[in-house]
Specification:
The chain has 765 residues and is α/β, with parallel strands linked by helices. It folds into 4 domains: 149 residues, 2-Layer Sandwich (Chitobiase, domain 2), CATH 3.30.379.10; 367 residues, TIM Barrel (Alpha-Beta Barrel), CATH 3.20.20; 72 residues; 152 residues, Jelly Rolls, CATH 2.60.120.260. The chain contains 17 helices and 40 strands. The strands form 11 sheets. The chain has an 8-stranded parallel β-barrel with strand order 8-9-16-17-18-19-20-23, surrounded by 5 helices. β19, α12 and β20 form a beta-alpha-beta unit. α2 runs parallel beside α3 and α4 runs parallel beside α6. The longest helix has 18 residues. It is globular and about 95 Å long.
Length: 765
């Protein structure tokens, strides 16, 4: 009898525990973006079908979102009582909120609907992830009691999506907006027109739908691959005005503002293909089938301005946003230079040159939009020739444009390639999906500070915020967009919402690992590099060593130096690994029993420059600074597949002189390196390298060796130091003066812009 009672009590307890998902008390929730203040309490609130939601008229959208999320995600039915209550507190800032969870009540306080909505998004992350796909099977759930007081750091918190290169379904666009709303991001920058396709229905100009929306075929592989290959398949489409109205309304319910972008005066080849009279030559052209910057540009005649005003009229009917983005970037001037009409226009309007003409173009369109009660945003090229009076600058080529605009009293949005371009590679693994180039890992995104250090406190007030950009030349499928977006958008959301003193990268990594479960439940294809290994060569007291690290916590790294696959019995990494010879290092993350991450492989070429001193007379561009100057002589070559991992250095429009001090006289045979030659990214290998080296007798020798410029992405350079007697030369120091390609000439990719120089490991043998 006694045994039966115990058994019944045990069964009752098991059934009771099966009804409710308990949470561990006093565990800080891993909410992304992290709130400004969280105060934990010891009790729990039980959410079940006895709970009701009460909200006044001010909070109907946010309360309805919460009700639908709970009822659609579980079998719990919400009542008309007030256990969860939305409370108006007029003293809170518009996007601020307070979330107070007591054992018997949840209070959501805000001064506006949007603040309440963000409180709901935090509450959402306190619920089991199974609510996200309607699979929560219990009748109750316990929520940790706590108080959150929260508000955003920046006003503008955005993500961009290019649908000109590749187009995505209405359902996907809505899912994209859902993701932004979940992360408290409030702006969707929708890039709707491009050289490769026009994606918005304009009823007054039907050829935009019939011609401009479709290209004959699409480039296969990377632009830098030669010769170019095409798929031979017609590609295209557009969003109808009814679809756009539906998407805009959907976003408004989630407090996401959509800013449409209609590119001008460049990136307009698709429109000119539909209406050749928009171009300077008036000759027929086709919608572009490959990527890059094209010479076709709107001609500044009255037909063009009337066309653009008509287009913008229909755009403004669809999008109620304060801002309309008019592009303004990468506008080649060759057509204008060679146009008699444009040259007369420049003279008749007292413009300085073609840059002045672009400024006139932008300012005229700004005046039109201002007359309709709207404001323009343009990429930082709109600074050239004089900034439009009321324009907001979106700075992408570094932060220089933002600094100049803010100092002139203009609002700016920061989105530099160095930290905000999510079309860049996020891992150095060889199996990463094809991308345009560049290297932007999660940690670098998280390190981004949207306030340039050059700005004073007063000037920094003009920085509205920042955004991540997704350009889709190499993303034909929706799951690829998700892969490039997540988890980097998590870092961007925390940068823009959370206060800097609250942010900690190690804590964030733990939150990301936890957030993966939510992404999986939502069916989002995210990139998981948390169990991967990062490594770099370091100098320790003059000796060379290799340092490994992994983002994940509580795991171990095991490694080998002979090229064999690491196992649970391989050496455990505890500190830097001494490197004294050429070797192949392999490492992986393990738990107690198994490898749980991909294998990291690094070939190390131990040559005569390792451990010596190197200097460069220019700093590499911040977007492509790699491991610094020392990275050029650390025994590690950059990736063959991309030009901007941690081993390549990039310089923009500058000659550079690299000096290597070998510390002592060494007999050497050769010096070699390689340059990237990706003209589609405005990267041009130098034509020659000027060398200067000091022999053992003090003689200084200078020489010039041309670079063998083949039609290849990777250009190898080698200089032999052999004497006529075929003896090794003794050298103490040497320098390489590398001339930048300069301003890119007409007819080449990036014409009129400064060329990039990318250099890899300098190997001395």
């Amino acid at each position: 009898m006694h045994f039966k009672k115990i058994l019944l009590l045990f069964l009752f307890a098991s059934v009771l525990c099966g009804c409710i998902e308990m949470r561990i008390p006093n565990t800080t929730p891993q909410i992304i973006p992290i709130p400004i203040n969280q105060e934990l309490k010891s009790n729990q609130f039980i959410l079940d079908s006895s709970v009701g939601i009460y909200a006044s008229e001010e909070f109907q959208l946010s309360s309805a979102f919460l009700k639908n999320f709970i009822e659609n995600g579980s079998s719990i039915e919400i009542q008309n009582s007030n256990e969860i209550e939305f409370i108006l507190v007029a003293t809170l800032k518009p996007e601020a909120y307070e979330l107070d969870i007591q054992s018997d009540k949840i209070s959501i306080k805000a001064s506006s609907e949007v603040g309440a909505f963000y409180a709901v998004q935090s509450l959402r992350q306190l619920l089991p992830v199974s609510f996200e796909n309607c699979s929560y099977m219990h009748s109750e759930v316990a929520i940790q009691c706590l108080t959150i007081k929260d508000q955003p750091e920046f006003k503008y918190r955005g993500m961009h999506l290019d649908v000109g290169r590749h187009m995505f379904s209405v359902d996907f666009i809505k899912r994209y907006i859902d993701a932004l709303a979940m992360l408290k991001m409030n702006t969707f920058h929708w890039h709707l027109t491009e050289d490769q396709g026009w994606r918005i229905e304009i009823k007054k100009y039907p050829k935009l739908q019939e011609v401009a929306a479709y290209r004959d075929e699409t480039l296969v592989g990377h632009y830098s691959d030669q010769p170019h290959q095409f798929d031979g398949k017609k590609y295209g489409g557009y969003y109808t005005q009814e679809e756009i109205k539906d998407i805009v309304a959907y976003a408004e319910e989630r407090f996401v503002t959509i800013i449409p972008e209609i590119e001008m005066p460049g990136h307009s080849q698709a429109a000119i293909a539909a209406y050749p009279e928009l171009g300077c030559t008036r000759e027929p052209v086709k919608v572009a089938t490959k990527w890059g910057v094209f010479e076709e540009i709107y001609c500044p005649n009255e037909f063009t301005f009337q066309f653009l005003e008509d287009v913008l009229d229909e755009v403004m009917e669809l999008f109620p946003s304060q801002y309309i983005h008019i592009g303004g970037d990468e506008a080649p001037k060759a057509r204008w230079k060679n146009s008699e009409f444009c040259q007369d226009f420049i003279k008749n309007h007292n413009l300085k040159d073609e840059h002045g003409l672009q400024s006139y173009f932008i300012q005229r369109m700004e005046k039109y939009l201002n007359s309709k009660g709207r404001q323009i945003i343009g990429w930082d090229e709109i600074l050239e020739g004089g900034l439009a009076p009321n324009a907001t600058v979106m700075s992408w080529r570094g932060v220089e444009g933002a600094v100049a605009a803010a100092k002139a009293g203009h609002n700016v949005i920061i989105t530099p390639t160095s930290h905000c371009y999510f079309d860049y590679y996020q891992s150095e693994n060889d199996d990463e999906p094809l991308a345009i180039g560049g290297y932007l890992p999660l940690e670098k995104v998280y390190s981004f500070n949207p306030i340039p250090e050059e700005l004073t406190e007063d000037e920094s007030k003009y920085v509205l915020g920042a955004q991540g950009n997704i350009w889709t030349e190499y993303m034909p499928k929706e799951d690829q967009v998700e892969y490039m977006m997540f988890p980097r958008v998590l870092a961007m959301s925390e940068i823009l919402w959370s206060h800097s003193e609250k942010r900690n990268y190690n804590d964030f990594v733990g939150s990301v690992e936890n957030f993966h479960k939510r992404l999986e439940t939502l069916g989002i294809n995210y990139a998981n590099h948390l169990y991967e290994i990062e490594g770099r060569m370091v100098s320790l007291n003059g000796d060379t060593a290799y340092r490994l690290k992994t983002l994940s916590q509580g795991k171990m790294i095991r490694f080998t130096l002979n090229g064999t696959q690491p196992s649970v019995s391989s050496d455990m990494y505890t500190s830097e690994i001494p490197i004294t010879k050429t070797c192949t290092l392999k490492a992986a993350v393990f738990n107690e029993d198994n490898q749980i991450g991909s294998t990291f492989t690094q070939k190390i070429n131990y040559h005569k420059a390792i451990g010596t001193k190197i200097s460069i007379d220019k700093n590499p561009h911040e977007a492509y600074s790699g491991s610094g100057a020392e990275g050029l002589i650390n025994g590690v070559s950059g990736s063959d597949a991309r030009y901007a991992d941690n081993e390549w250095l990039g310089f923009w429009g500058e000659d550079i002189e690299i000096t290597i001090d070998l510390n002592e006289e060494k007999k050497i045979n050769s010096v070699e390196t390689r340059f990237y030659n990706g003209n589609g990214q405005w990267i041009y290998a130098p034509k020659a390298v000027h060398l200067k080296f000091t022999l053992d007798d003090g003689t200084i020798v200078t020489d010039v060796k041309e670079v063998n410029l083949k039609n290849e992405n990777l250009v190898n350079f080698k200089y032999d130091f052999k004497t006529p007697e075929d003896l090794k030369v003794t050298v103490k120091s040497l320098s390489l003066m590398i001339s930048n390609y300069g301003t890119i000439p007409e007819g080449k990719q990036g014409a009129g812009n400064k060329a990039w120089t990318f250099i890899d490991e300098i190997i001395i043998n």
